[in-house]
Amino acid sequence: MSHKLFVVGIGPGGADYLTGQAQAALAAAQVLCGYTLYVELIAPLYPEKETYTSGMRQELERCRWALETAQKGKTVALVCSGDSGIYGMASPVLFLSPEYPKVEVEIVAGLTAANAGAAVLGAPLGHDFCVISLSDLLTPWETIEKRLRLATQGEFALCLYNPSSRKRRDYLRTACEIVLAEGRDPDTLCGWVRNIGRPGEAARLLTLAQLREEQVDMFTTVYIGNSTTREVQGRMVTPRGYRT
Ligand code: SAH
């Protein structure tokens, strides 16, 4: 009997973004579980497999279900979008795993939205950067604000996850205002990518002043350049620093 739980990052989109390692884990699993949308993205590849899906907010319940099912003797794959260790399920699974001593947990890396979206725009993360989530569901807003300020002071390019939701429509505006207040030029090149690797993928380059006025949704990843980021033939490029 196997007691294996794979925690699999499936990348931002459908099958094209699965790594070979992720495909092997999904193929080995008897049960695929996760948030409905992500299971639906990959389930067509494995039509014979049992699936278990749950809603967006039921994350700990989903982790426990996966651990319990593996503890009972099944091979389980818990799927997450992007990378499972980046705002994903790998961390809560590992915190809960001591309660399920039979289960062997294996974390399978995936392509995260930051680098998949960067490739759509060009090379906005060509030098040091910070990834910051604007969601204050699990992080106090003061902490998010502090991180935005210090990352701006540090001259990092920024990549923002969870830039908006129905209840937090003005968070991107507030974040831009913080970055501007810390002295980043309003003409700084920025970009966003929506639905990376999924139907309806869209992207735009704009200035920081324009980004402040932009409405984006929760399926969008946002990039704020550093002072050296430039547009090169319609692409957003942050230099490595070579003298060219
Ligand atoms: N584990 C995921 C991130 C989950 S947090 C990963 O590694 O990518 C959810 C946020 O990720 C979204 O609000 C959005 O900012 C970003 N994101 C995830 N998938 C995306 C996609 N396909 N297109 C654009 N942004 C995405």
Question: Would you mind describing this structure in some detail?
Answer:
The structure is a single chain. With about 240 residues, the protein is an alpha/beta fold. About 30% of the residues lie in helices and about 25% in strands. Helix 2 (about 35-40) links the parallel strand 2 and strand 3. The longest helix has 13 residues, at about 60-70. The protein is elongated, with a radius of gyration of 19 Å. The chain starts with a strand and ends in a 7-residue tail after the last strand. The mean pLDDT is about 95.
SSE blueprint and pairings:
Blueprint: E1 4-9, H1 20-28, E2 31-35, H2 36-42, E3 50-54, H3 59-71, E4 76-80, H4 90-96, E5 104-108, H5 113-121, E6 122-123, E7 129-133, H6 141-153, E8 157-161, H7 171-181, E9 189-194, E10 202-207, H8 208-213, E11 220-224, E12 230-232, E13 235-237
Parallel strand pairs: 1-4, 1-5, 2-3, 2-4, 6-13, 7-8
Antiparallel strand pairs: 8-11, 9-10, 9-11, 12-13
The protein binds S-adenosyl-L-homocysteine (SAH).
Concise synopsis of the structure shown:
The protein has helices at 20-28, 36-42, 59-71, 90-96, 113-121, 141-153, 171-181, 208-213; strands at 4-9, 31-35, 50-54, 76-80, 104-108, 122-123, 129-133, 157-161, 189-194, 202-207, 220-224, 230-232, 235-237. It is α/β, with parallel strands linked by helices. A hairpin with a 7-residue loop joins strand 9 and strand 10.
